[in-house]
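User: Second chain of the day. Same drill as before.
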Amino acid sequence: MIIGENRSLDSVLATYKPREGQSISNLLSKEIITEEGGPGEAFSETAQSTAMVTRSYTISPSGKTLYAKLPPATRLA
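Assistant: Same format as last time:
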């Protein structure tokens, strides 16, 4: 398998179901999406936030708010 630059595992294998006895950590196995590509039970855990720009870097900035609107999820056919 050859995967082009800037393609993550979830972009390529988000709904991959491994053979019996094997496992994979992907969007389907974490119940973030359903087999049909819609939101799964854990979808809300993927909410993305924006933070205020400051002069210093911090791994967990304060003043975070959820994005008001994100582009809709797309599904590769």
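Residues 1-45 form one domain.

User: Great, on to the next one.
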